[in-house]
């Protein structure tokens, strides 16, 4: 900073400078802003260092360590200098902690051997993890949220196991993400690495894991995590004997099959937040084993339910142990992210949608997300004609499975279909009695696919929809149409045909957002590769 600029800067009121610094710090995603501001000038350093609130968002990553903990005479604070500055300058204020560690935690002894018994010796090592946990142990009484994003379960356990026996009285959010499915699939050694990594035992959520009964575990949760409201565990092979009371949000995602829970253990976890839980996501965490039926647990506050499954039985397990009378937002995803052409699977999925019609309050749903869910490839037009459905000559309980499901969604306002099933699209274009089409309250419709053949099905659906609306309105449809149509399509689609679609959208849709992504299989798509175009 030049001398003239420094003089002008120093003439500003400190309150104004602090307001600028607060906006700079908290409006962005760069956790290093306070440290960078303190390097601008001596005056900035004095102001920034004296404002504790600027230092309450802390990030630790691969680059945070500048030395090795085993170095003779190393001061613990010297190994993580930036962390030490943040902890000191934040004074006694509550702080949020983000830990990001990318890369596999161990080397192979010999290339191609898949022997991962050697710890890494560069960057962020296992010793660094233990050291970091020890430093933070003196400050966990101020910790209000923890977010960990790592490829190493071992690194995470070494950090948090240093806190066993310590109360975390302010923690309201605990989120741990073990890599992500897209990236982990790119490592052909991942399955071997995983088997070694999950040998490490996490016990922070159970305070050592010495308790066994549900009441004891609930007592531990209430004592050590009294304010915990949001618990998110993504692909982390944790112990299932944790129990925290009065959660508002519970997210359990992408567990290795050998570490998935039973319905009995899940029921205990849900029961301890029975009247407070509002958001529940179970995405690849349930065993497909079917236990004897038991009384269903009512979760009266859950308004958002997200289910990801590899086996149809996983949904059956959840519907058997819990009911959701307040549900308004439903999310369904087939974890293979591909439409399953197996006839047996399609028939099982049809049965499961029948079960959801019977067990879930579909009539009150306002938002629905469905990804890569398949139905039997029967042709609807060979079963019932459009006129038979329209005239009401076919009873609703005789509708084909996807149509029976759709016919319940009279309050639905927002629908997202990823890898849409042709049968589902076909069913949406029927006209029930006393309505132009199914889904009469729908105002936002979104399609996502990276597969060109899916795009052709979407185009066919939309063309047929326009024709039906014209027919049902006596040949002159004037609206109202959808308020918003969103399309995320392969970048190889026919742009000329798409331009005609955009040009001729009214009165069928008021606004469109069109995005493009590489033509590829879904789980290797990078979010930053998509490109969006808004159409007024």
Q: Using the alpha-carbon principal axes, give the shape.
A: globular
The computed structural class is: alpha/beta
Oligomer: single chain
What distance lies between the first and last C-alpha atoms, to the nearest angstrom?
Answer: 44 Å
How would you briefly describe this protein structure?
With 536 residues, the protein is α/β, with parallel strands linked by helices.
Topology of helices and strands:
Elements (H helix, E strand, L loop, with lengths): L2 H8 L3 H13 L6 H6 L3 H9 L6 E4 L15 H4 L1 H9 L5 E7 L4 E2 L10 E2 L6 H12 L5 E8 L2 H8 L12 E6 L2 H4 L5 H8 L16 H11 L5 E5 L14 E5 L9 H9 L7 E5 L13 E2 L5 E6 L2 H10 E2 L5 E6 L8 H17 L7 E5 L14 H5 L10 H6 L7 E5 L3 H7 L15 E5 L3 H21 L9 E9 L4 H9 L5 E9 L13 E5 L1
Helix pairs in contact: 7-8, 13-14
Question: Top keywords for this entry?
Answer:
single chain; 536 residues; alpha/beta; 15-stranded mixed sheet; two-stranded antiparallel ribbon; 19 strands; 18% strand; globular; disordered N terminus; disordered C terminus
Explain what this protein looks like in three dimensions.
Strands 1-2-5-6-7-8-9-11-13-14-15-16-17-18-19 form a 15-stranded mixed sheet, covered by helices on one side. It has a two-stranded antiparallel sheet with strand order 3-4. Strands 10-12 form a two-stranded parallel ribbon. It is built from 19 helices and 19 strands. Helix 19 (495-503) links the parallel strand 17 (482-490) and strand 18. The protein has a domain at 328-536. The chain has 536 residues and is α/β, with parallel strands linked by helices.
